[in-house]
Amino acid sequence: MYTGKRILIIDDDQDIIINFTVALEHYGFKVDSYTNPLLALSNFKPSFYDLLLIDIRMPNMTGFELSLKIRKSDPDVKICFITAFDIYYGSLLEEYPNMDFNCFIKKPISTQALLERIEGELSAV
Length: 125
Fold this sequence. Notes:
Layout (H helix, E strand, L loop, with lengths): L5 E5 L3 H13 L3 E5 L2 H7 L7 E5 L7 H11 L4 E6 L5 H7 L8 E3 L4 H13 L2
Parallel strand pairs: 1-2, 1-3, 3-4, 4-5
């Protein structure tokens, strides 16, 4: 169990938030969530979360834009991007050369696969 580990989910799809929250809380994570990236940014607490799960395509601000703004106040927070779309790494690296693209989670994802990705990120140095 992951008692005490804090995860922030930011996704404009309420169903994804509900499914991820239920699964993660079942395994002992403490979960906060937002469907609005601007609201998430304004309420973000540096050094509070162990991991952020951020959707890439959202209205008002992309997940990449949000992560860049969050990194200004918390450069060490771990981030996994979640998306239902195929990712083209070459174009992402050109557009965001200083971005860490180590963790992508493709939707839909099983609970077990989600937990494995999160565990991998949390145990990475």
